[in-house]
Amino acid sequence: MLTIFLVAVGIFNVVWGARSFFRAAFRWEEYSQHPEQFPLAKRHIWQIDSYGLLYETYGEKAVRKSVLFWSAVIVVIGILLTVAILKDNADWGRIEDYPQAWQGDAISFAGGTLTIEDVGVSEGFTAKRFNVDKNRYEEVEVKADMYGEGLLLIKTTLTNNSKDTLRIVHEDLKFYAKPAEEGHNINGRSSVDGYLYHSDDIELAVGESVPVWFWMSLTEEEWGQFFSYVLQYGKTGCVLLPE
């Protein structure tokens, strides 16, 4: 939804900016009678009317040049926004491009190696979660009846096998179920229920490891549907294949 909105904003800017540019270039005598339609012409009462000030200081030609300039700027911004969003969508690729991972597999993930230790259905579990305020791990209890009919629990370990410190921003770490009927495009299809790990960003020294547990609540009806279970960080990820 956000992607559609941003693309629509970009296209609107291109159309509006181009319309203002061509009207200023070829129909200035008519267009100049409607200064409220100039780009960035709407003013709050506490702001200076920059077009009026420009007219009083440099004359009508300066106003026309300013309108042409800002129209072109708006067109360029609209084009860049649209291209950036559409390119970002294309860069995410398709689910089948991600490697498939079974329990016991180790895959490249987020600049390190992710080892899939356990994938299964659980009625509840206890995990250790890092409490930033107290600077220690604490026990956290998660029960199926608190969320849904059952929990899909994935226990993994992330190891930094690079030559530098590895930093993971937790907002960019995703675990989601992608319904088969929605197609194969990855971008914008996340429906995260939860994952347990450091409450703050993860920072691993070279060779250091950290447990990362992902979980998702599913109703009895959802268990009967086909999903692609995807772990994703940035543009790296894998598709989990539960037993």
Textual characterization of the structure:
- With 243 residues, the chain is of the alpha+beta class.
- It is built from five helices and 13 strands.
- It has helices at 2-26, 28-31, 50-58, 60-92, 220-223; strands spanning 100-101, 106-109, 112-122, 124-131, 136-143, 150-159, 166-168, 173-179, 194-196, 202-204, 209-218, 227-233, 236-240.
- It has a five-stranded antiparallel beta sheet.
- Strand 4 and strand 5 form a beta hairpin.
- Helix 1 runs antiparallel to helix 4 (60-92) and helix 3 crosses helix 4.
- The longest helix is centred in the N-terminal third of the chain and has 33 residues, at 60-92.
- The protein is elongated.
- The two termini are 33 Å apart.
- Mean pLDDT is 79; it is low at 184-193.
Number of strand elements:
13
The helix tally amounts to 5
Spans of 5+ residues with little confidence (pLDDT < 50)? Answer: 184-193
What general outline do the C-alpha atoms trace?
Answer: elongated
What share of residues are in beta strands?
A: 25-35%
Q: Label the structural class.
A: alpha+beta
Order of helices and strands: HHHHEEEEEEEEEEEHEE
Return the average pLDDT rounded to an integer.
Answer: 79
**Spatial gap, N to C terminus:** 33 Å
Widest sheet: strand order?
2-3-6-11-9
Largest sheet: 5 strands, antiparallel
Share of helix, binned:
25-40%
Radius of gyration: 26 Å
